[in-house]
Design brief:
The complex is a heterotrimer of chains A (644), B (183) and C (335).
Chain A: H1 18-28, H2 33-38, H3 43-72, H4 82-116, H5 125-147, H6 172-200, H7 213-245, H8 258-292, H9 299-313, H10 328-340, H11 342-357, E1 360-361, H12 365-388, H13 390-396, H14 400-430, H15 436-462, H16 479-509, E2 567-571, E3 578-583, H17 590-607, H18 610-627, H19 631-642
Helix pairs in contact in A: 3-4, 3-5, 3-16, 4-5, 4-6, 4-7, 4-8, 5-6, 5-17, 6-7, 6-17, 7-8, 7-9, 8-9, 8-11, 8-14, 9-11, 12-14, 12-15, 14-15, 15-16, 17-18
Chain B: H1 2-22, H2 33-38, H3 63-75, H4 79-82, E1 97-98, H5 104-113, H6 128-141, E2 172-173
Helix pairs in contact in B: 3-6, 5-6
Chain C: H1 6-13, H2 27-60, E1 62-63, H3 80-112, E2 120-127, E3 130-135, E4 144-147, E5 149-153, E6 157-164, E7 169-172, E8 180-182, E9 188-193, E10 198-204, E11 216-222, H4 224-235, H5 244-255, H6 258-261, E12 285-286, E13 291-292, H7 295-303, H8 305-308, H9 321-331
Parallel strand pairs in C: 2-6, 5-11
Antiparallel strand pairs in C: 2-3, 3-4, 6-9, 7-8, 7-10, 10-11, 12-13
The chains are: A mainly alpha (644), B mainly alpha (183), C alpha+beta (335).
Chain lengths: 644, 183, 335
């Protein structure tokens, strides 16, 4: 085991001289110092801090869950009173869904999509930086509220009229609603960056039928975000307006409708869980191929399944409302849709099993997490089919059965693939290997702890235990299973601690990672670990779906891109034929400053509607500075135009 | 250095303000009988200004207390005589005229003792804690409560601007008793 | 295998049978329980089959490591066996899903076709955090109101119109039927029938605020004659107190804060904002299932309700110990 940090090994170029390579690297590097750190537009740095931030929120959300499990471990426990418990479960749901699950998937995409498609940077890098800062602001904002007793207490779904002005006095519900605005702006902007990168910045020769399945998953997710997030932004804005300026969107007495909230929220809420789940599916494909030593079976079916899941995901939302007085015939349609969506996922699972069946398996930690996914997600998906039935749902809706289901599909379908992806991609990101032994302990404790924690909840739900209760009577006999569940939660906590230990130890003393430690076939493994600032010293030309596995025929790399300016090659959407050379901006502080201005405007508008007006002025100034063309950059761009 | 201190000061103010506004206090403080005896009906007095008896709780800036007060205002049928602040057989509560004083202690005394010309006495009928919640709400009806703690619109037919958007009606003490209205 | 034992697991897990979807005692819950068993069976089979497939794949697949050459020959290979297997698996999955969809739709139909002749009609209004139940009859002068309990005749269908006074709640008696939300501004409907006499418990199942956890109600299914006797008793006003202490208790009730919110038919107390107490002594629990209905618990509740249900709307009532004892003595006579 080496004790020295991995040197940034600049791979040799096949067409540039060493001084040119060093100049290229200098061009793409960040400026030094704290200002350079704040001003980065390098997608790898943005994504790394994004991932770390989201992981911190994951830990905070986990601590909140631990508090809940401690309270529920015994009947009629008095560890947490109802007000604090309501705040804690609201914070747990909001943190996990808005501050961890969606952003971390986008963060991994921001890191790996440009690398996988052979680009030097993500499209719209300043927007990607802004997207990170505004998410950080939103998360800090939410937790500051929690500490100051303004934390929301109406559930992560904030149904009206409970979250409305009459039944939620003070500013707690407004705090929640505005946090939505922060996180949804972040998600929408990151999606735009990802879509533009996938469509226009691919390496020449990487046609749409050759892009990795993880890139397809990120693309599909980004489109889902574009269509789903506006619904919740609209709903939360309407809620703030009802509470702040007395509109009547959700007031039945004056022409509004309490159910309108549920429709708007769940029109977002159901695609939201697929937004979390589909990137996980992409990660699984990325891991299974190298660990089965063969390409994924059934690529066209896999791609079409991802797209079908995304479309169908928008047709399910009323299944969250089966207990309301929505028309019964309409509810049956949503039963059918909720069952149909199982089919594309089933196709994917069968294709993966076929891949594993006919492959040569390398049983390392990433593959273990994949296997954990199979067990947990399939079980969760089947309970989802049960919940899809209107009649059965009327018994198990809003009980711990649903809590079990949602954790099985979200943890099994997203967190397990995410942890597998951490183990898979950690060497690429840091240049060090994670410990395999600690990895196995981490996996098994997580897998066993998870099932011990959440399987009993199925039984508790059927036995009559509703959700969102801070305690329960002793005579109902739910104490034993609740205690078992709490012990499982403790086991999960230990496993996560082991993961952190693994990361900390490996960062200092892990084995140095080569360019391609797993022998994988996609482009991110064609550069050094960690990649240089310019991603690829020679931008590759792609001839197949697994470029590193397939022998090349024809030109292998792109020549002619400038080394003194941040030039990227833009290619056409379907066939990735070279289209134009585009100059990307250098590091700039304005995304950070803009995020501060926008945050001030958002926070002020909770208290006074005029904050939108006055707060728009600093935002306008910051955005103007952002887009103002810099003299040096304009000079370089003009020079390149005249003499490329 | 100065900016750090300023930040700390802002944070401290925000902390205190938020904690006070957002606390949901479910337990009751002790009864307010001592306050009652010390309340003056008129600002005239001999000698120097006596010390004001303290209002025994922080309800005047507490959102939960005011929202409970709003609920109790209609539950206990205050709106039967006062309407939703515009008055009827009872005087308006959302204007700036306070016949018996606008301090929380005065309003508390009014509710407990009753007043001439028709205000019933609620002594023994409404627990003290709920009276303080009503007091906090009544003051908010004329805009005397901070707008981020005062109640917003109710989920019912709207009858007036919500208390959080009510312009402050600076209290004018005194005023005459209303003429007996035809009952 | 473990999953298949679930229906028998209820006694094993020690859970009570009286708030339990796995112990249906009414026809609607029985339909849903049948559907549950069908779904459990099919899903267990699918899960086990998929796991077996995965395990075989793990066994059968050769072993390799990062240096093993990747099988790029697969790119040109039609892989017919894999193709047929995947297509067959998907076809079986679709068939099973269609079967489950049909089972679900048939159950929906069965639930909607409950025979409603001679139904008992109720109007249930949910409040934060208690249940107001009005029994309707013909003529309306025979209507009566009770709180936090549901007593229904065995074998007779019940139609309940559901209203909410404040936020969204959900009525759920798992032994009898699935849940239905009570939404302010809307009237929903639930129809069910108890087929076995017994005591059950229902609970609010939509998060409604601080005391959502303690917003429960008792359900008693009685033989029809016992039900009629109970209903007739409920129609009567409160009896005159017989003892001195009970008379003093009634005076305390009428002269204190109680009547501002509570109603006792036959006294001067007609508040409409809190549970009706005309027959409070006949109920098994107090405070929406929070406390057993004994004199000690009633005294503790009146003195400091926030200790048991912090956030409930009942204030602490300051009474001298003698007055408190008299009040509780009176309330305990209200059967």
């Amino acid at each position: 085991m080496s004790t020295t940090a991995p040197e940034l090994r600049l791979p040799p170029s096949r067409h540039l001289t060493p001084p040119e390579v060093r100049e290229l690297e200098r061009t793409w590097s960040d400026r030094p110092g704290i200002l350079g750190w704040l001003a980065t537009v390098d997608h790898k740095h943005i994504a790394r801090r994004f991932i770390v931030t989201c992981f911190v929120f994951f830990l905070l959300g986990g601590l909140l869950a631990a508090a809940m499990r401690m309270q529920l471990a015994r009947p009629e426990n008095d560890l947490l009173g109802p007000d604090l418990y309501n705040q804690i479960f609201t914070m747990h749901g909001s943190t996990m869904m808005f501050l961890f699950a969606v952003p971390v998937m986008q963060a991994v995409a921001i890191y790996f999509v440009p690398l996988m498609v052979g680009a030097r940077n993500i499209a719209f890098p300043r927007t990607a930086a802004f997207s990170y800062w505004i998410l950080l602001a939103g998360g800090v904002f939410l937790f500051v509220g929690f500490v100051l007793n303004i934390g929301p207490d109406v559930g992560w779904f904030a149904y009206v009229p409970l979250s409305g002005p009459q039944y939620s006095p003070g500013k707690r519900a407004d705090w929640w609603a505005q946090m939505i605005t922060f996180t949804e702006v972040s998600a929408l902007l990151a999606s735009i960056c990802i879509i533009a990168t996938v469509f226009k910045l691919r390496a020449p020769g990487m046609t749409l039928t050759r892009i990795p399945l993880f890139v397809w998953a990120s693309l599909v997710t980004a489109f889902m975000i574009l269509f789903a997030m506006p619904a919740v932004m609209l709903a939360s804005t309407m809620l703030i307006m009802d509470r702040l300026i007395g509109t009547h969107f959700f007031n039945p007495a004056d022409g509004g409708d309490a159910l309108l909230w549920q429709h708007l929220f769940w029109f977002f809420g159901h695609p939201e869980v697929y937004i979390i789940f589909i990137p996980g599916l992409g990660m699984l494909s990325s891991i299974i191929a190298p660990f089965a030593r063969r390409p994924i079976y059934g690529y066209p079916a896999m791609v079409l399944s991802l797209i079908a899941t995304a479309f169908l995901g928008f047709a399910l939302w009323v299944h969250h409302m089966f207990a309301t007085n929505v028309a019964e015939l309409g509810k049956s349609f949503f039963t059918a849709a909720s069952m149909v969506i199982a089919i594309p996922t089933a196709i994917q699972i069968f294709c993966w099993i076929a891949t594993l069946w006919t492959g040569k398996l390398n049983f390392r930690t990433p593959l273990l997490y994949v296997l954990g996914f199979f067990f947990i997600l399939i079980l969760g998906g089947l309970t989802g089919v049960m919940l899809a039935s209107v009649s059965l749902d009327t018994q198990i809706h809003d009980t711990f059965f649903v809590v079990a289901h949602l954790h099985y599909v979200l943890i099994g379908g997203a967190v397990f693939p995410l942890f597998g992806a951490f183990y898979y991609w950690f060497p690429k990101m840091t240049g060090r290997m994670l410990s395999e032994r600690l990895g196995r302990w981490n996996f098994w404790l997580f897998f066993i702890g998870f099932n011990v924690a959440f399987f009993p909840m199925h039984i508790l739900g059927l036995e009559g235990m509703p959700r969102r209760v801070y305690t329960y009577p002793a005579e109902l006999g739910w104490g034993t299973l609740n205690l078992v569940s709490t012990l499982g939660a403790v086991t999960i906590a230990v496993s996560v601690l082991l993961f952190i230990l693994n990361v900390v130890v490996s960062l200092r003393r892990g084995a140095l990672a080569p360019d391609n430690p797993w022998g994988a076939g996609t482009l991110e493994w064609a550069t050094s670990s960690p990649p240089p600032a310019c991603n690829f010293v020679d931008v590759p030309i792609v001839h197949g779906r697994e470029p590193l596995w397939q022998p090349t025929r024809g030109p292998e790399y792109v020549t002619g891109l400038a080394t003194h300016a941040r030039e990227v090659l833009v290619t056409s959407v379907v066939d990735a034929l070279p289209d134009q050379r585009l100059m990307q901006p250098d590091s700039t502080i304005w995304p950070f400053v803009s995020s501060l201005a926008v945050s001030a405007m958002f926070v002020g508008s909770i208290f006074n509607p005029w904050a939108i007006v006055w707060g728009a002025i600093p935002v306008a100034i910051a955005l103007t500075a952002w887009f103002w063309p810099g003299r040096e950059e304009t000079r370089k761009a003009l020079a390149l135009e005249k003499a490329p | 250095m100065r900016s750090e201190r300023l930040l700390i000061a802002i944070a401290a103010v925000a902390l205190v303000a938020a904690c006070q506004r957002e606390t949901r206090t479910f337990t009751q403080p002790p009864a307010g009988g001592v306050t009652l005896n010390a309340v003056q009906l008129t600002p005239l007095h001999a000698g120097a200004e006596p010390p004001q008896p303290p209002v025994p709780n922080g309800y005047q800036q507490n959102a939960y207390a005011m929202s409970q007060g709003k609920r109790l205002f209609s539950a206990y049928n205050c709106n039967g005589c006062h309407a939703n602040g515009g008055g009827g057989s009872g005087p308006p509560l959302m204007d700036d005229v306070w016949i018996y004083g606008s301090d929380p202690q005065n309003i508390f005394a009014t509710i407990v003792e009753g007043r001439p010309n028709g205000m019933p006495s609620f002594r023994g009928r409404i627990p003290d804690d709920q009276i303080w919640q009503l007091v906090a709400y009544i003051r908010s009806m004329s805009g005397l409560a901070p707008s981020d703690a005062a109640p917003s619109r109710n989920d019912s037919l709207s009858t007036k601007v919500s208390e959080s958007r009510q312009d402050t009606q600076k209290p004018v003490q005194g005023g005459s008793e209303p003429a007996p209205s035809p009952q | 295998m473990l999953l298949a034992m679930l229906p028998m697991a209820t006694p094993l897990a020690g859970a009570a049978p009286f708030q339990n979807a796995l112990n249906p005692t009414g026809i609607q819950a029985a339909h849903i329980y049948t559907l549950w068993n069908v779904m459990l069976g099919v899903c267990t089979v699918v899960f086990v089959a998929t796991m077996i497939g995965l395990l075989i794949a793990l066994r059968r697949g050769g072993r390799g490591d990062e240096t093993t050459p990747a099988e790029v020959a697969r790119f040109g290979d039609p892989e017919r066996i894999a193709h047929r297997s995947v297509v067959a698996s998907v076809a079986i999955s679709i068939a099973l899903l269609l079967f489950l969809l049909a089972a679900s739709v048939f159950t929906d139909r069965a639930l909607a076709r409950l025979p409603l002749q001679n139904a008992l009609t109720l109007d249930i209004t949910a409040h934060q955090f208690w249940w107001e139940v009005q029994y309707n009859d013909d003529p309306p002068s025979r209507n009566f109101i009770t709180a936090n309990e549901l007593q229904i005749p065995v074998g007779r269908p019940v139609i309940a119109r559901l209203h909410s006074d404040d936020v969204i709640h959900s009525l759920w008696v798992p032994n009898l039927h699935g849940k239905k939300d009570l939404i302010p501004g809307e009237t929903s409907l639930i129809q069910f029938r108890a087929d076995k006499a017994g005591d059950y418990r229902g609970q609010c199942a939509e998060f409604c605020g601080w005391q959502h956890a303690w917003m429960a109600f008792n359900v008693k299914a009685l033989p029809p004659s016992d039900f009629e006797r109970w209903a007739e008793q409920q129609r009567h006003s409160a009896p005159e107190p017989a003892t001195d202490i009970a008379k003093r208790g009634r005076d305390v009730f009428e002269s204190g804060p109680c009547g501002m919110c509570h109603n006792i038919q036959g006294t001067n107390a007609h508040g409409q904002f809190a549970p009706d107490l005309t027959h409070v002594a006949s109920r098994p629990t107090l405070a929406a299932g929070r406390l057993p209905n004994t004199p000690e618990h009633m005294m503790a509740w009146i003195v400091n309700p926030q200790q048991f249900k912090p956030g409930a709307n009942m204030p602490a009532v300051p009474l001298s110990p003698d007055d408190l004892r008299a009040l509780v003595a009176y309330l305990q006579t209200l059967k």
